[in-house]
Amino acid sequence: MKSLESLFHKHLKNFVDPEHEKVAVRGYQVDEDGFGLATNGIQLLKVKIAEAGEPKILTLSGKPVKDAEKVDLHRLIPDRDPVATIDVESWLDAAAAFIAVMSKSDASEKIPVVKLSGEEGKIYLSFKLLDGSSGSWEIGEGESLERNLDGKRLLQCLKVFEGYAGKVGVSGSLSGFRPILMSADDVEVLLMPVRSY
């Protein structure tokens, strides 16, 4: 479990909201099955970090929180089989290239939006900025899950799988306003879409 526990703690800070009104969201939870869960309301991280046992709520530094109200984070995770398989390195390369173009662009987008889409069994990540810059990358195969995603948050989510899984399953409802779930053995990451492209 040590490598999964290290993976969880390495990325934890990107998945919590230290200012949230609920104490359980300021830190992280460990459920009865030993999965660590953390969310900031936009993205969620779930990793097998311990043996099964008593559920607990912990601060970012790992100290137990007493009398905190548990937040049912499992209800946010779609219960669907993956409909697409994505190559992690291709997805990371595409997202990193997008962030590099975005940082050099004169465009004034507040949120760096990328589009996840599919065509003829192939999955693509693409972008188009206000200044005319654009790009598209084939990143996997499967059914289309059309989503507009925050490019920076997507990169944070993908880095969880870097060096751990070569491919991840992607699932979610057909609605473009519902989150997508990226998953590999004992690791799941959920990302909410954004509303513009």
Q: What report would you give on this structure?
A:
The protein is an alpha+beta fold and 197 residues long. It has two domains: 2-70, no CATH class; 84-191, Proliferating Cell Nuclear Antigen (Box). Helix content is 20%, strand content 32%. Strand 7 and strand 8 form a beta hairpin. Helix 3 (88-104) runs antiparallel to helix 4 (151-159).
Radius of gyration: 17 Å
Roughly how much helix do the residues carry, as a percent range? 10-25%
Number of separate domains: 2
Tell me the strand order in the biggest sheet.
Answer: 4-1-2-3-12-11-10-5-8-7-6-9
- Beta fraction: 25-35%
Output the keywords:
2 domains; alpha+beta; 12-stranded antiparallel sheet; Proliferating Cell Nuclear Antigen; 12 strands
Task: Reconstruct the topology from this structure.
Elements: H1 2-11, H2 23-26, E1 28-30, E2 35-39, E3 43-48, E4 56-58, E5 84-87, H3 88-104, E6 113-119, E7 122-128, E8 134-142, E9 147-150, H4 151-159, E10 167-171, E11 180-184, E12 187-191
Antiparallel strand pairs: 1-2, 1-4, 2-3, 3-12, 5-8, 5-10, 6-7, 6-9, 7-8, 10-11, 11-12
Helix pairs in contact: 3-4
